[in-house]
Amino acid sequence: MSSSEDSHSPDPHRFEVARGTLLLDRVMTQVIRVGGLAVILAIFGIFFFIFQEIVPLFSAAKVKKGNQTDLRGKPAPQVLGVDEWGALPFLYAGDHVVQFIDAENGRRREIEAPGLAGAAISAVAYDPVKRRVALGLKDGRVGSFRVRYEPLFDAAGNRSVDAKVEEEPWFEPQTGTGPVRRLAYGDGGNLRVLAVVRAEEGGPETVSILRLGQKRTLVSQGALALLDEADVSEEISGRVVSIVASQNGSAVLVADDSGTVSYFQTDASGTSLRQEFAPFNGRIPVRMDYLFGGVSVALTAGDGDQAVYSLVRPTEGDGERLFVRIKEFGSIGEGVPVFASSTRNKSFLTGAGGNLTLRHLTSGSTRWEGRAPFEPVTATIDEKSEHFFIAGAGGEIQRFTMRDPHPEAGWRAFFGKVWYEGGAEPVYQWQSTGGTDDFEPKLSLIPLIIGSLKGTVYALLFSVPVALLAAVFSASFLPAEAKRILKPAMEIMASLPSVVLGFLAGIWLAPLIEERVPSILLTALAVPLSAILVGLLWSRQPIQIRALFENGREWLVLLPILFGAAWLAWSLGPAVERMFFVYEDPATGRRIADFRLWWPQATGSGFDQRNSLVVGFMMGFAVIPVIFTIAEDALSNVPRTLSAAAAALGASRWQVVRTIVIPVASPGIFSALMIGFGRAVGETMIVVMATGNTPVTEWNIFSGMRTLSANIAVELPEAAPGSTHYRTLFLGAMVLFLLTFVVNTFAEVLRQRLREKNQLV
Q1: What confidence tens digit (pLDDT) does each residue in 455-482 have?
Q2: Per-residue pLDDT tens for 151-197?
């Protein structure tokens, strides 16, 4: 007996785990732990990289004082200019010589200005874009000379700068007598303008505007000649205190001692007064300076107040452009105002009484403030915006090195309404590049944020009802044999590439929707109403009829009816369009049944072929499998004992689903919705290919959009590394990350509360 028990006694080592299994378990535990930490570190690394790229956007300008040169004993400079590299500035004091100073060692060189020997100069003006010095003489003649720079390189590749002074033609105005008191020069290439103020000592002033041009031949360009002269003296109410011409020669502004600014437009048809305005309510604008591009002008009052006016076209119609105040800056202080406009962007240096301020038009911000070692009377900025120079009345010249690579950036530029040049009002606008160097970057992220939310909302409006109702039906009503086919098919849908869906949306769906909008809308309304109606009628049928399609096979009855309702609604679309969506041509009174024409006339909103409706359908199609799969799993995992208990108490199938299954599975359903939201908000290719990719701020379902993700994908390959555009795209990536992070955090908190509320006791 004992021997038999011993032979059948259990092995004491039967529960021991093999050493290889334990070793593998330890290794995999460490691998998972290291992998998890690596993922966390990678996320933080990406976040740090993006943060590092966007921090410089919000940094102020850095200015460092450089060499100072003393030219005491020389006349006070009236013009200060500089070359592209800030190496060889020049001064002109209204005589026959131009002084050049080496910015590094202070070495000086004088160049005789041709044609000025014995000339009595009475007025000087300077155009920093062309480096042209305009001159007015006591005998009434006007002319100019240009300073040209040329880089020279030695055998070692070291650069030096050479300069020369070129004479330009002289002209004698026929209007008025006496010396030239003030003048302005504008160069538009084919058309130039010279505005001249003449007056005898104590006598009345005359103001004339000369149009200059060059006749071109097939082989050469003719000499500069006077085309015509316009006397505008009678249209100016007071004595002139400041006069300036736009850089393209199309406008002349004259400020008088009554505080009024007169705007004269010059073109091929001649010269005409277009506008009069008082920028400081009667206070005199003692200085007017055009900013780079020749569209906006900075006006400075005698007390230091400064405002910028820009040519603006009216909101409605095709009226002429007039000057409107678009920016106000703080006072520059008391004293003789100085001004220097950048020829690279919309930055400008200004100040008075020794105070210096670096400002930027687009952002409306002050980039830097400081004190000069002396009171400047003139200033200039080099073309690269890396240096600026100031000159004092005693001949002092101070060089400053500045670094401000992102002057157009800032919180207001990215997230606030900005009044851009030429705009009728402050707007949110994204337009990162333009066709000319004087383009004003428009970097508002608001249209992109709205576009991201807009595409997501319309996609979820289509996908959420379809996906959730399909998940409920599959988990609680569909027979097992049908479910084994449906669920894998839905999961396969999730693997469709976005580029394929975008291609289908742009090539097939967009033209289809454009032609049949009423049919689409009618079908979207008819299908769910038909399903509800069939459900109500089916529930009232005798039990004998309903028993024929038990165990979830009612869809065999429902499906043909839904297809029939969809076909009927689609077919009735053209008839509905002829009845309700009729466009009336305002010119001929002809009535046309066309939804595409009716929608803009009825709502004032545009209609684009590739619009949000297309994105809603196609991106919703991409989101449906994600939401369906996760929600269906959550619903299927509700314990059957709960459903059986509710059914045993007399609850119908729908009552079981509504009161038991859906509440218990609500955390999982909510997770499905959040994952679907993340899938939609981060979608790129469908948005790029299915919309016009236009950054707009409207929620019109028939207009396009541009999302943050699509904007990054489209523009990042073309953005110069380190540029404002480049860093702004990274800022967009950060905004997208924060948007999804905040939404997911809120969703997780809400999911936990739903889980606690519906947890099983």
Answers
A1: 999 999 999 999 999 899 888 888 878 8
A2: 999 888 888 899 999 999 999 999 988 999 999 999 987 789 999 99
* Per-residue DSSP letter, 710: H
CA–CA separation, 627 and 456 (whole Å): 14
User: What count of other Cβ atoms lies within 10 Å of the Cβ of residue 718?
Assistant: 10
Q: Give pLDDT tens digits for 41-93.
A: 998 898 899 999 999 999 999 999 998 888 776 788 999 999 999 999 999 99
286 φ, ψ (degrees, to nearest 5): -80, -15
Long-range CB contact pairs, 324-333, < 8 A, 24+ = 325/279, 326/296, 326/419, 326/420, 326/421, 326/423, 327/361, 327/364, 327/419, 329/359, 329/364, 329/366, 330/306, 330/366, 331/303, 331/304, 331/305, 331/306, 332/300, 332/304, 332/306, 332/357, 333/304
**How far is it, in rounded angstroms, from Cα 390 to Cα 381?**
9
- Three-state DSSP at 339 gives strand
Tokens of 113: 């200005």
User: In angstroms, rounded to a whole number, what is the distance separating the alpha carbons of residues 696 and 455?
Assistant: 12
Rounded distance between C-alpha atoms, residue 508 and residue 610, angstroms: 11
Phi/psi for 165 (5° steps) reads -115, 125
3-state helix, strand, coil in the chain (%, to 5): 40, 30, 35
- Two tokens at 291? 């900013």
Q: How many residues does the chain have?
A: 761
Helix (H) or strand (E) holding 316: none
Give the chain's largest Cα–Cα span. Answer: 145
Number of helices followed by number of strands (H, E) in the chain: 18, 32
Q: Count Cβ atoms below 10 Å from residue 256 Cβ, excluding itself.
A: 21
Q: Dig out the tokens for 285 from the structure.
A: 């604008």
**Residue whose pair of structure tokens reads 């290291």 in the numeric block:** 34
- Give the per-residue pLDDT at 18: 79
Per-residue tokens: 508: 């097939």
Task: Please report which confidence band the pLDDT of residue 757 belongs to, taking 50, 70 and 90 as the band edges.
Answer: confident
Name the residue among 493, 559, 563, 486 with its Cα closest to residue 523.
563
Q: DSSP letter at 171?
A: B
Neighbours of 139 (CB within 10 A): 12
What is the sign, positive or negative, of the torsion defined by CA atoms of 643, 648, 652, 658?
negative
CA dist list (Å): 642 to 624, 667, 757: 28, 17, 16
Concatenated DSSP letters of 470-520: HHHHHHHTS-HHHHHHHHHHHHHHTTS-HHHHHHHIIIIIHHHHHH-HHHH
CA atoms within 13 A on the CB side of 99: 26
Is the Cα dihedral 316, 433, 379, 185 positive or negative?
negative
- Three-state secondary-structure class, residue 319: coil
Question: What is the C-alpha separation between 668 and 681, in angstroms, rounded?
Answer: 20
Distance of alpha carbon 34 from alpha carbon 30, whole angstroms:
6
